[in-house]
Write a structure and sequence with these properties.
Structural class: alpha/beta
Helix content: 25-40%
Strand content: 35-45%
Distance between the termini: 47 Å
Largest sheet: 11 strands, mixed
Radius of gyration: 25 Å
Order of helices and strands: EEEEEHHEEEEEEH
CATH topology of the largest domain: Pectate Lyase C-like
Mean pLDDT: 90
Number of strands: 11
Low-confidence stretches: none
Number of domains: 2
Shape: elongated
Amino acid sequence: KGSINCEGEIITKFLNNSTVFAKGAVKVEKEIMNCQVISGAVDAPQSQIAGGEIIAVKNIDIKEAGSQMGVRTVLHAGRNYFLEQDVKHLQEELDLSKKRVLELESSMKIAQPLMAKLSEVKRQGVTKIMDRTGQLKARVAKLEAEIEEKKKQVHSNDAAITIRAAVHPGVCIRIGRYEKTLTKQFDGYRRFEFDKNKYDIVAYFSEEEGKKDAKK
């Protein structure tokens, strides 16, 4: 077992029992077995993927998915895991900022009725608290807007999963937020895409077929 973390792309002959994070494409010559691969894309048209989970911001291109043993294999294209982590960290900052705003507002509620009786130094302290509260509220509003915008970009239904030779039962296909678990054996070329008219993941049996439908 091993772990790989890369800002760019990874090129290798095989991956076994590994956890891989690569913001670029993962290019594999032969096989990916029982791995968690999180990447910008997976370019492995001669490789079998069996077991584990593959997550790609863009497309996944492989030779064979799953195995005759029916091992659960998840292929997820159109999911930006790295952006998800950005959202998670922003949400943590947002939660802390909101908590701090409530604490400061509570302090001001106690201090404001007593302002006339406070010394100049203490009044200045209360004014600073008010200013800080205003700054934090502005930061909260900015964080909320940024989080909502990034959330919209985490999933994309425009990605595709290409499997060039065979798909075995037990393979879970995910594109964006949509999912389909395959229960039958498929041999030959398949390219899975999200059909915006059917609101479902569909399979094309040739590169030409998909291109024709896209022009309609």
